[in-house]
Specification:
The chain is an alpha/beta fold. Strands 3-6-9-12-14-15 form a 6-stranded mixed sheet, with no helix packed on it. It has a 5-stranded mixed sheet with strand order 1-4-7-10-13, with no helix packed on it. A 4-stranded parallel sheet has the order 2-5-8-11, with no helix packed on it. Helix 6 packs across helix 8. The radius of gyration is 20 Å and the shape is elongated. The protein is about 30% helix and about 20% strand. The chain folds into 2 domains: about 25-75 and about 110-170, UDP N-Acetylglucosamine Acyltransferase, domain 1; about 170-210, no CATH class. It has helices at about 1-15, 15-20, 85-90, 95-100, 105-110, 170-180, 190-195, 200-210, and strands spanning about 25-30, 35, 40-45, 45-50, 55-60, 65, 70, 115-120, 125, 130, 135, 140, 145-150, 155-160, 165-170.
């Protein structure tokens, strides 16, 4: 009985019980309470690593492969020029739990990179790491095993560690028009009715719907 009460309490507080049981700092994407996902976005076992409730926002129609890792905050490692170790977060852990209001001023004055934003129609390959503070645009493709440390423009193919742009998938003019068409905002029945048009040449598609 106590097991189930404890499990329910952890869920109310926003933590995954299995994560606490295994003493890990990640939760599966599908179980993360602080993630917002758009319609039809799916993943095959992605992980979210977090030490705060920083938001992870993922757009519509995104494809996220196995073992993708979202590192949504720095865990307070970069808050000091003197040390890499998150001293405050570790030494005052008990005080933070007992009196969280006492820590507000400290954290307001010592900002860290937090949060990740992923656009619509993004494909993230297997084994990718996306670091805190990163924004990924619409239509981006991220090659497997890449480490994304900086913002990514719309409709780019990127790869590597750290990830760099390999190429733009379309011209700036085409990208602007695709973003205005924003097919991911269409009703699902409309997408079904127009499914064959997704096989058109890019210019034909733009001409038809722009």
């Amino acid at each position: 009985m106590f097991f189930w009460i404890r499990k329910i309490l952890w869920r109310i507080l926003g933590f995954d019980y299995q994560m606490m049981l295994n003493k890990t700092d990640y939760v599966l994407l599908k179980n993360d309470n602080f993630t917002q996902k758009g319609i039809r976005t799916y993943d095959n076992g992605a992980k979210v690593w977090r030490w705060t409730n920083a938001p992870l926002i993922i757009g519509k129609y995104c494809s996220i492969a196995y073992d993708v890792n979202f590192i949504v905050d720095e865990g307070y490692h970069s808050m000091s020029a003197i040390t890499n170790f998150p001293l405050y977060n570790n030494l005052f852990k008990e005080d933070i739990l007992k009196k969280p209001n006492l820590t507000n001023d400290f954290f307001k004055n010592h900002q860290q990179k937090e949060g990740i934003s992923i656009g619509n129609d993004v494909w993230i390959g297997m084994g990718v790491y996306i670091m805190p503070g990163v924004t990924v645009g619409n239509g981006v493709t991220i090659a497997a095993n890449s480490v994304v440390t900086n913002d990514v423009e719309d409709y780019c193919l990127i790869g590597g560690s750290p990830a760099k742009m390999i190429k733009k998938k379309h011209s700036d003019n085409q990208i602007e028009k695709l973003n205005k068409i924003a097919w991911w905002n269409w009703d699902e029945n409309e997408i079904k009715n127009k499914i064959n048009d997704f096989q058109l040449d890019i210019n034909q598609f733009i001409k038809k719907y722009y």
